[in-house]
Amino acid sequence: MPVHDWTRVDDGIFHDFHCAWTTEVRKALNGGLLPNGYYALVEQHAGRSIPDLLTLHAGPEERELPSLAALPPASGGTAVALEAPRVRRRRTIAPLGLARRRSLAIRHVSGHRLVALLEILSPANKDRESSAEFFAEKVANALEFGVHVLVVDLFPPGKFDPQGMHGVIQQRLENSDEPYDLPVAEPLTLASYAAGPPVEVYLEHLASGGTLPEMPLFLRPDRYINVPLESTYQEAYSGVPAFWRGVIEGAASREPMTG
């Protein structure tokens, strides 16, 4: 199933799909993709309607910045050294680009260690400059504390993310105004960030009508699993109301029929 043009519908329609897709990914991860000791939860950010998928390890709560000894065990998942993620772009961001802050501690209320975040962007994440900056800061803070991040952005660049949201994130991480070279013909972005230092970034781009590739979700800087974005997208899309599927696919008008 091709990726659809979600700019054809209101934010609320995508939000409904967004929630369903996140749930399908959670089901896939907890259904056997995550190694023993890991689990995924959906988190709701009050006031922002951004459900994040949290990947946690059932270990003790960390009260300090993570060190190699504090990482989850090197078991399960795929070792980068044996098989690198199959993406078309990779970038290394040196630690000088990260502004260290010790005022933020990323933990889950269960006391289990937070390992990774999966973020499916909504239009509200980049509808104004402050929204785009807030999201980039959130990703940077997570990486700073050793939390890996997978970002899925199915919306084309806009006024406040002219090179896509990865471009905003990259500028934040590098503390630079250097623009990202987003492919013009493939403006949608999938970006997986493996916390370092340095931060390793694995990138794929596509256009509406393209097929979603699997993307790596890191459990440690040296280990990852592949997230089945295409199959979970299909499952979520099958629940979209028929009327709105027609609008999204360009087969129907947004205006209700009268007679």
Describe this structure in words.
The chain is an alpha+beta fold and 259 residues long. It has one domain. The chain is built from five helices and ten strands, in the order αβββββαβαββββαα. The strands form two sheets. It has a seven-stranded mixed beta sheet with strand order 1-2-5-6-7-8-4, sandwiched between helices. It has a three-stranded antiparallel beta sheet with strand order 3-10-9, covered by helices on one side. A hairpin with a 6-residue loop joins strand 1 and strand 2. The two termini are 33 Å apart. About 12% of the residues have low confidence.
Throw out a few tags for this protein.
259 residues; alpha+beta; 7-stranded mixed β-sheet; 3-stranded antiparallel β-sheet; 24% strand
